[in-house]
Design brief:
There is one protein chain. By secondary structure, the chain is of the alpha+beta class. The chain is built from 3 helices and 6 strands. It has helices at 28-46, 49-53, 129-138, and strands at residues 9-14, 58-68, 77-87, 91-100, 106-117, 124-125. Strands 1, 2, 3, 4, 5 and 6 form a 6-stranded antiparallel beta sheet that branches. Strand 5 and strand 6 form a beta hairpin. The model has no long low-confidence stretch (mean pLDDT 91).
């Protein structure tokens, strides 16, 4: 794992025709995919999540709040800025902002709450040990 750069992680996504709704704007559900892509990129590039989770707990989204600010259209280059917000005893919040890469126009923002779940019991686990240390490095 490389040293963690300062500031939010940035993921670029180009809007394609298949992302659009009948009005020619990015479909609201596609933003969820853009946000998920950016979260995975953050964890892959700045952590060793695979080693920490292994065959152990699963990371599960339990809440998502998204605000749509400005429509994006085919050909737009979006930048998703992802950072870790609050870390609690059993959950953490990832904050994400989507902007037009050309001029920083806010397109959407979201807060995603996740928990670690025991795969056998389905119960949320406390955030501790290597996982907690990893999350604190991202905050």
């Amino acid at each position: 794992m490389a040293s963690e750069p300062a500031g939010p992680h940035r993921t670029r996504i180009k809007v394609r025709g298949y992302h659009l709704d009948v009005y020619g704007h990015v479909n609201n559900a596609r933003y969820l995919e853009f946000l998920e892509e950016a979260r995975w990129a953050l964890f892959e590039e700045r952590t060793d999540l695979g080693r920490i989770l292994g065959d152990g707990p699963a990371m599960v989204v339990v809440s998502l709040s998204i605000n749509y600010r400005h429509p994006a259209s085919m050909g737009d280059e979006l930048e998703v800025r992802t950072s870790l917000g609050r870390i609690g005893g059993r959950s953490a919040v990832v904050h994400q902002v989507v902007v037009l890469a050309t001029d920083d126009t806010p397109v959407a923002d979201a807060d995603i709450t996740f928990v670690m779940v025991d795969r056998a019991t389905g119960r949320a686990l406390p955030l501790q040990d290597d996982l907690l240390s990893m999350l604190r490095q991202l905050a």
